[in-house]
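Summary for the lay section of the report: proteins are chains of building blocks that fold into shapes. Here we show the chain for Methylthioribulose-1-phosphate dehydratase and then a coded description of the shape we predicted for it.
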Amino acid sequence: MTFASISLEHKQQALDELRQIKQQFAAKNWFPGTSGNLSVRVGDFDPEHFYFAITASGKDKSASTPEDFLFVDKSGRAVETTSLKPSAETQIHCEIYRLTGCGAVFHVHTVFNNLISEWFGDQGAVPAQGIELIKAFNIWEENAAISIPVLPNFAHIPSIAERVEGVLDPNVPGILLRNHGIYAWGKNAFEAKKHLEAFEFIFEYLYRSILLKNSVPSLNVDGRR
Ligand SMILES: CSCCC(=O)C(=O)COP(=O)(O)O
Ligand SMILES: [Zn+2]
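The coded shape description reads as follows.
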C-alpha cells in the first residue's frame, strides 16, 4: 500500500476525527502549554507500510487552524510537502502502531497522570484493581487487576520509543511516561478516546484514594470508620 493509494475521503475522515477529538480534549484542559499530541492511522495496517495523521509540533492545541495536522509514514517522515513538523514524540506513536496495529494514539499531560506516574514510578507500573472503569479495556472479570506500565521520561525521545516494546501489555492499552503524561491507544479514535478517559478516571481515583488513606487515620483498611 502507498500513501497515494489511500482515498481522499479516508484521509479527510481521519483529519475530521482528529480535529473533533482535539477540541473535546482541549475543553477538558488536556493540552496545557502546547503539550500533548494525537494521531489517527489512515489505510490498512501493514507493519511494513502504514501511514497516520498527527498533530504538528509546538502548536496551541486548544486552537483550530488549517495547519494543525500532517501525514507521516511508519518512520514518522512527512509524506506530503509541508512546512509543518510532526510532533516531537512521533517516534513513540510509530512504535505503538508498529507493535499493536492500532488505529489511533492519543497523548495528554494531566496533573493526575503526572502525580500517579511519579508516585508509582520506582516500581515501574501503576497497580489498579476493582475499579469499574477497568471494563473500558474490555476486561470484565470481577475485581479485575491491571498494571499500567511507567517508562522513564528521557529528553531523547528514541530512548523512550525503544523501551515501549519491553513494557507493552496487550491487555492494557496505555503507557505512562514518568512525570510527563500518558499514551493511550485503541483500534480506532472512538476506542482510543474511551481508553484515555478510563485511564484518567483511574488516575484521579488512585490519587484521591491515596490522599484519603493518608489523611484520615481513623478509617479502617476497608475505608469505613
Ligand atoms: C510543552 S510540552 C513538551 C513536549 C511534549 O511533551 C508534548 O507532548 C508536545 O510536543 P509536540 O511536539 O507534540 O507539540
Ligand atoms: Zn508529551
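Put simply, here is one thing we learned. Residues 33-37, 55, 57-58, 87-89, 107 surround L4RZE5RM (ligand 1) (CB under 6 Å).
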